[in-house]
Amino acid sequence: MIENAPNEQEEQECPDACFQCNSPDYEPGYTVRLCKTCRKRFSRYPLKKNILLGAIGLGILFAVSLYSFQYHFKAAISYEKGITYADNRDFVSAENEFQSILKRYPQNGASKVHLLTAYFYNNKLEAADSIRNELEKNPSLRYKEDLTEEVATFKDLWDKTHAQNPDLATAGECLERNRLPEADSILRKLVHANPTNWTASLLLSKCLRQEQKYTEALSICDRMLSYNHQLPAALAEKATLLKTVK
Length: 246
What we know:
Elements: H1 36-42, H2 49-87, H3 91-104, H4 109-121, H5 125-137, H6 145-163, H7 165-176, H8 180-193, H9 198-210, H10 214-227, H11 232-245
């Protein structure tokens, strides 16, 4: 039995033709062979202007968000480092961290409150009082209860120190006139009543050093450094004492 031969009249698909309609009139130079009509039909129409602008706007917002995120992230790290430094009584390092935050975010209330404390323990009383005045004028900056308590604690320490200024001035005058026993007596009373009066403690150490009471003077320095391991004036006074007793 003879197999049926293909119908010679059946239309054959031409491989050298338009991929879509088999038209031999395709446009050369393209990977996909299409005639002009099919290529136009398959081509993408241009985006509308408002859609294009919207996409550009979203791209800009995304870029800005990424740019801002790095600073928020750095500030968060600085804040945690500042808290850790303060907890460890390294108040110079804590001051640096909170200052770096406030340079970029000047209205960050928590950083202001913690910087207030750092200033006090670094014996920068005027700077601390300046922040306290700002916080009192803007209560919203210390809206959290623990921040309010921290400000109140500073105020108590500040008032206690400020109240001793007249006696401190008298002791300083005695020290300048080399009336060491009198200065010693006044300063001991001041420091006993208020161990965080850094100026009184420093003057007492200096007075004791001049009286050659080196062990007592060193104990005064060590007590100051127990409150703030990085208090510059206390470190300098202790270094002077150690050189003297060698």
